[in-house]
Amino acid sequence: MQSTDFERDLAMDAVRVTEAAAIAASKLAGRGDEKAADQVAVDAMRTALNGLDIDGKIVIGEGERDEAPMLYIGEKVGTGKGPKIDIALDPLEGTTLTAKAMANALAVMAFSPSGGMLHAPDTYMDKIGIGPGYPEGIVDLDAEPAENVLALARAKGVNVSEITACVLDRPRHADIIASLRKVGARVHLITDGDVAGVIHTAEPETGIDIYLGQGGAPEGVLACAALKCVGGQFQGRLVFKKDDERARAERIGITDFDRKYSLNELVKTDAIFAATGVTKGAMLDGVRFERGFVTTETLVMTSADRTVRRIRLRRPV
Predict the structure, then answer these.
(1) pLDDT tens-digit readout, 172-182
(2) pTM summary value
(3) What is the pLDDT of residues 118-170, one digit of tens each?
(4) Cβ(189)–Cβ(175) under 8 Å?
């Protein structure tokens, strides 16, 4: 399938799938039940995917690590009549955010032609990501956080005090945060949702310049699909904390446990990325129910032409 055909045929399908998951999850926003919110998002996304004329396979699923409801890795979706595609997804990126009605919860998904995305195991990943417009290699996962923000400031032509780094607010990131603040960079801490954190680097209105830290490996691949669509940069390295995680990686063909992956190794082909806001955030509005109508906002990106679209849906409930 040619890239243009792939994107033309599937971009709007991706939007409809993430819209369905976001609408379902939003109905449980603020209810305090993370698993229930995740379950309805999973169910809605599975139903929407199975209505598409695709021969789809889930290569990045969600929920294995915390035993949440899953669209499991290897699951076949779609009618089986259309193109063979790989699918990476998180029906509800930010279950805690949704349960507490906090900002930035998303329903996210990426499509690629079959074989296009790394089948990342459900482990952790060290990550660094920036948006478009910088020389290749301007940041490096193996450099100190301070070195990376200083290099980014030089490339941007600003003082390092004008660089904002997004970091997941976890004790394991204390050294990263200290390094960034020592040189005067701003640190934007997020409680959950590191897919959104990476994507924020590609959206100027968020004010985020760089993402640093350790989060889920599957989420890293999802975020890469978005950055590939805008020409951003990303590096990641899998982190294994238990022997069974290494065994799981070996079963899916990963044997170099210290490898530093580039964006184009994580997402090898053209891709489509879609994210629909569940709760209102820096990047997208959340789902709203008003006077018998539901309104959503979705970001959909395509890598072949680096097109970014914002789509607002309003329809009767």
Answers:
(1) 999 999 999 99
(2) 0.90
(3) 888 778 999 999 999 999 999 999 999 999 999 999 999 999 999 999 999 99
(4) no
Strands 210-216 and 164-168: parallel
What DSSP letter does each residue of the chain carry, written as one string?
--HHHHHHHHHHHHHHHHHHHHHHHHTTTTSS-HHHHHHHHHHHHHHHHHTSS-EEEEEE-S-TTTT-----TT-EES-SSS-EEEEEEEEEE-HHHHHTT-TT-EEEEEEEETT-B----SSEEEEEEE-SSS-TTSS-TTS-HHHHHHHHHHHHTS-GGG-EEEEE--GGGHHHHHHHHHTT-EEEEESS-HHHHHHGGG-GGG---EEEEEEEHHHHHHHHHHHHHHT-EEEEEEE--SHHHHHHHHHTT---TT--EEHHHHB-S--EEEEEESS--SSS---EEETTEEEEEEEEEETTTTEEEEEEEEEE-
CATH architecture assignment, domain 124-266: 3-Layer(aba) Sandwich (3.40)
Q: Mean per-residue pLDDT for 12-26?
A: 97
pLDDT number for residue 4: 54
Alpha-carbon dihedral angle through residues 296, 132, 11, 286, given to the nearest 10 degrees: -10
Domain boundaries, the chain: 3-116+271-316, 124-266
212: tokens are 């640093």
Nearest CA to 281 among 293, 297, 295?
Answer: 297
Q: Does domain 3-116+271-316 have CATH number 3.30.540.10?
A: yes
CA 158, CA 135: separation in Å to the nearest integer?
16
Label residue 246 by pLDDT band (50, 70, 90): confident
pLDDT at residue 311 in the model: 96
Q: Residue 241 pLDDT > 90, yes or no?
A: no
Residue 242: is it exposed, middle or buried by C-beta count within 10 angstroms (0-12/13-18/19+)? exposed
| CA-based radius of gyration for the chain | 18
